[in-house]
Amino acid sequence: MIKLYQPKRAFGLPNPSAFCVKLETYLRMTDTDYELLIGQPNKGPKGKIPWIEDGDLRLGDSELIIQYLKSKDGNKLDGRLSKEEAAQGHAIRKLAEESLYFISSHSKWAVDTGFAIYSAELFADMPAIIKLFVPSLVRKRAVASLHAQGIARHSQEEIDDIGSRDVEALSALLGDKKFFFGETPTSIDASVFGVLGNLMDGPFESGTRTAAVSKPNLRGYITNIRETYFADLTETKD
Prior knowledge:
The protein is of the alpha+beta class. It contains ten helices and four strands; from the N terminus they run E-H-E-E-E-H-H-H-H-H-H-H-H-H.
């Protein structure tokens, strides 16, 4: 059985990490047996979360893990896609993971009110004396990473404009479909759910979040995936 390592659940979300949500959603969509274990980023093979152990294999990075599972168990979700649909799905995943994800991260790390909420949960079990300096150091590194990526170089107004256009694009691409490519899910839905679900259902306010929750089709999409694949989670968000 695969061992999946990720942080503990929080905020009523499957996980506070969008990429952990992505991977666990994929495992649930494909009915893959797994054991869920708590893991810290520095323990993983790539120094980040999530990662898996499958026998003697230790593998990090959600996308590399999904590709490994496809090669091992068959392309259960995406095998039906045409070449054009697979290319469209790749572009949708990149929109979510390479743009919207960093906008969502900015609201947790760079915005004071968001970081206050996030750090209270993230560092809850840390000894009081360590809390005096570690949270600020971790935040400084995270914001520096967002600055290097580019999103933290913008004003909040500019960030919300970028994010709102991402949301508009996802809403238009989804339309009135149950999933992005019809009535059954693909790995693209696992990716989008990880990023968009955490943005919409997490407690971190932003103009991008407001734009997302204003879209009835996106609200229905996230609710459907959550209720279908994570109905066992007792803690829910209003």
